[in-house]
Each structure stands twice: as structure tokens, then as C-alpha cells.
Task: structure prediction
Amino acid sequence: MTLRARVVGCLCMVGLLGLALLSACIGRFPLQPGQVLHALLMAGHAPAQGDMVHTVLFGARLPRIGGAICVGAALSVAGAAYQAVFRNPLVSPGLLGVLAGAGMGAALGIVWGVGHAGVAALSFTGGLAAVAFGVGVARMFDAASMLMLIFGGLISSALFTALLSLLKYVADPQNQLPDIVFWLLGSLTQVTPQALGMLAGPVVVGIVLLSACGRMLDGLAMGDEEARTLGIPVMALRYGVIGGATVLAAMTVAVAGMIGWVGLVVPHVARLLVGPCNMRVLPVSACVGAMFLLVCDDLARTLSAEEIPVGLIADLLGVVVFVAVLPLLRHGWRA
Amino acid sequence: MSGKDAILRVEHAGFRRGHRTVLHDVSLDIRMGEMTALLGPNGAGKTTLLRLLLGLARPDSGQVWLDGRPMAHWSRRDVARRIAYVPQGHVPLFPYSVRDIVGMGRLAETPFAPTLHERDRVAVAHALAELSITHLAARPYTELSGGERQAVLLARAVAQGGHILILDEPETGLDYGQKLRLYALLRRLAAQGRAIVATTHDPIQAAGIFDRAILLRHGRVMADGPAASLLAPPMLERLYARQDQAKIEESFW
Result:
């Protein structure tokens, strides 16, 4: 590993920890960094009666911070993996329909009134179902063709977007429709410690597994046939990575709604930092994505008295970042 | 044919694409330490034959044997440990460095390792030195000239370390000096005991470089023998002769 990659890796970790600490301090009830650290060190002990610091920190802020880190990391690593598998830097995790499917699943849950956990479960299922549908369409024609896979994803996205519109149309405009709309904007307000516990493990495992495929994904960049002659089981790798990245992306939608752009933008920033090798791009993407969404969520919480949906902030800030790095990217691409 | 040191063997292979038969009953042996040139007019089936040899396509009839076992029984990884492929130069979208590209030759050995192991790094350094491109190691592959890219892909094949080296028109885009160095390298690799198979469009030079020539025409082996005697005017005229109209249509694609 090059010195530069090491330095970037260390800076990313330090930056992420610093940002997390900062995020724990700011908000409606400001805390001093010392108070936060003290409360964290005392986490094992029973808190004093009416300890506001403890309540704010452990009840509200830390789950949210953890949620932002997990969702940002998962979406970014999924986006980087998709970009490697499709040999296309303009691909987002939504390419095969996972976002459309998850959105449709959530809307279905809201219309059926199945409660918060039910909505999350339906959303996760919907995301996987949409990708399964897209891949199924592709395999009906030609399983080995990447173009067919993109075509299948296009069809799947169109189908599930249409179904989502249908659900919006039939939803009760007084209470269900606003719920759907708000949910689709993406928000981290609903992240509970329990949800975070369920999210964190799979996200870490997913990042590690996808990163472990990094060098093989580099080989895939040379084209399918050449990758085969290098000893890469191309189809298994492609579908395995798509599967892993899809599960990650679907989980984020189930927990936090639709936060899409992050997955397209962040891998570019990561590539600027550490070069094109996926063994480094994937973990650095995860780290940068976590930081990015953390900043977005801080802005969402503090910009106004009424909270702004974080998905909206992430989209806006993502555009700004993308436009800012575009001149640098053009240099790196052949185009 | 002596099957004794045949490491790669094609036996009565036929290959069809749609209704068109690309290869008819092709049989040949690839032997260690031998340099084999594959010649024929465009559309004769050279690329398809290379794909059969690489295990990228399976014959519709007949069989391809690698090291005494049918090709289909080998895993991709085990094939890659035995056969290295040098494609015609192309450019990936992402600016991998030369060292990264050559390092890809080690994927079959350590697919999941986060970084190259010591053994892999030695192989990469050795391959870079063999091709005299150590000074290019940190350069982005995307910014190299055609000849330099060819050298990088050759280095990757050397790093891969198989006994068999298959090259698709390796002299394309090389200047005269680069061609001479390429042939010298191939001779050196063959002298180390490797089997070298290359398609080529340059029979005049191939006659002086390769040990053996296989001439393909209309998907059949027209001749197979010592390069120096086969690649002479009478045979070349027959190999590249203009075809009558019906045959042109038949072999156009």
C-alpha cells in the first residue's frame, strides 16, 4: 500500500471520529466536547436521575450519528461496487431498481398501515424484489450481457416507479400521502438504537466483503473475457457483488428512506484521493460517505428550527460536490 | 503428431456461430518450448481458435485438452495459472498505474489479498524488468503510447507465470524496433520452456521468428509445419488468394 493511501486512510478515520464528536455536540441542546467524552466514558455506569446529557446523547444523538455513518458508508460502498461491476463511473446504486423498489415497498407499507417496522421490512423486501426482477429480465435474454442487465434495471425501475405512483394515487391524501412523500425525502429521525444495532453489523460485514473483492473488480475493468483469462470467475463475481451491494442499498432505504445521490458522487471523491484501485476505493468511499452524510444530517438538524429532510440536503450538497470535483475528474478519465 | 509434450491440444474441434460454421474439424498440438504462429486471412477463424485455446469458448464438437484434462474441467483460476493471454491493446476507463495492471497478472494466485504478497511483488518487479519498463511503473496506463501498452500487457502475462503464452496480433501498432524487441522477448520466453502461440498478419517476419506455422483458411487447417518452409510464396499465395464470389460471401463474417 502506498504511503499516500495510508495517510488518506488515517485522515479519513480521524476526520470521521472528529466529525462524529462535533455532531454529538451540536443541536438544539448544545453540549461541550468534554461533556460528551465524559458521558461516553461513563456509559457503563447507571446515569444520575434526570441527567440531560445522558438522555440527549444516548436517546437521540448517538443513534442518529450512527445511522448517518452506516447509511452514508453503505450507500457509498454500494455505489463504488456498482460502478466497478458496470465499468461505468456514472452508475448509482439505483441502477438496477433497488431504490425504486424499496420506495414502492415502503409506500405499500404506509398504505397498508403496518407500522414502522413493517414499513422498513417491506421496503427492504421491495428493494431486493426490484433488483431480482431486473436481473430476471436480463437473464431471460442473455445472462452474460451487461447491456441486458442495465436494460433489465431500467425496466424494473420504470415498473416500480409506476407502482409507487399508483400507491401515491390511491393513498389517503390526508395522512398517508404526506407520510409517503416525507418518507421518500429521506430522514434519519426514525433511527432507533435497535434499528442501528441491526444495521451496523451487516454494513460492516458488507464493506469488508466487497472490499475483499477489490482487486478482482480491478481485473473486471479490463473487460469480461480478459478478466476470465486473468482467472476471475466473472459471472460469479458480478452477481455476487451486485447482490451484496443491493442488500446494503436496500437496508439504507429501509432505515432512512431515499438518499440516492451519495452513492454516485462519493466514489469519485474517493478515487481522487486514492486512485482507481478498488481495494482502496471501496473502504475510502465508505469513510467519505459516512462523513458526507454526517455533515448533511448536521445541517438538516441545525439549519432551521424545523428539521429539513436529510435526503434533500444530501442531494443538494451532492450536486455542489460533484460540480466542484468535475474538473478534476475530467483529467482522470480518458474522455 | 507426437502427444508427448503437447500441453494444449485441440482435437477435431468444430465451432458454429448461428448457422455459419466458423471452425471445421480443427486438430492441433501446442508444445512446450515451441513458438507457433497462427496465420490466415481475416475471417478464417483465428480469433475463434484463440478463444478455444484460452477456454473462453467451448467447441460445439470435438475437445480441447489442457495438460491432459478437458478444458471444461479446469476452473478459470487454474487455467489462468497455466495460460497467460496478451490481448490487443485497449484502454480501460480508470487510470490504473502500470504496476497495478501488471499486478493483475497475480490475481489467479491471490484473488482476495488486500495487497500483493511479497512473492507477487517479486514477480511483478521481475516482469517489469524483463520488458525494460520498470521506469513506467508509476505511470497511468491510460497515458501510454500503443507500444508501451503492449509492453505492459506482455509484462502482465510474464508476471502471471503460466507455461503457455497466447498473443493476439502482438505486433499491431509497434514500430520496427519494438517489433524486433518483441520477437527477441518471445524467443527468450520460448527458450525458457514456454509454449508461445501468436496470431500474426506478417508472414514474412514470422517465417524468420517462429518455429512452426499453422495456416487457417475457411475455418480449416490448411497446413501445419515448420514456419521457415511453410511461409514461402507458393503457400502464402494459396493462403491469401482471392476467393471466388461465393466463397467471399460465405466467409465474409
Q: What stands out?
A: The beta strands of chain B are 6-17, 20-31, 35-39, 61-66, 69-70, 83-86, 164-167, 195-199, 212-217, 220-226. Chain B has ten helices and ten strands.
